[in-house]
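Give me structure tokens for this 133-residue protein.
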Amino acid sequence: MASGNGDLFESMQYWKNLSERAEAGLMEIPQSVAAQCDQVCAEYIDHLAEMLGKTKFLVDLDAFGTLPSAQQLGRKFKRLADGEEGSAAAVIRQHIEVVQLMRSVFRRYFVETEDVDQSVGARIGGIGAGLGE
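Here you go.
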């Protein structure tokens, strides 16, 4: 599991670096490509969220029986499924964080453009209204 966490950390660092480069104007993604990537990220986040919800049902503690050792084993598997640290649920949450960071990089290219378009449109509308007076 440690190498998986390392890979997630490396992914997070990679996307943080890309975000900083985009913010500094060192990287450009066409708006249509950014919008498509954002859509895929949104869909993947939904998929991961659905998987996260299912981790609660990966282990049925009652299925382990009544022996103390069996119950202890059941609790261990339950922690591996939906516990806080090192569980499947924790790893899925980390993946969601990475994809959200990816999404923030892509959204920069069309959300800012939409804001500029609206601002320019409002200014042009104001100029047009001023000319009509």
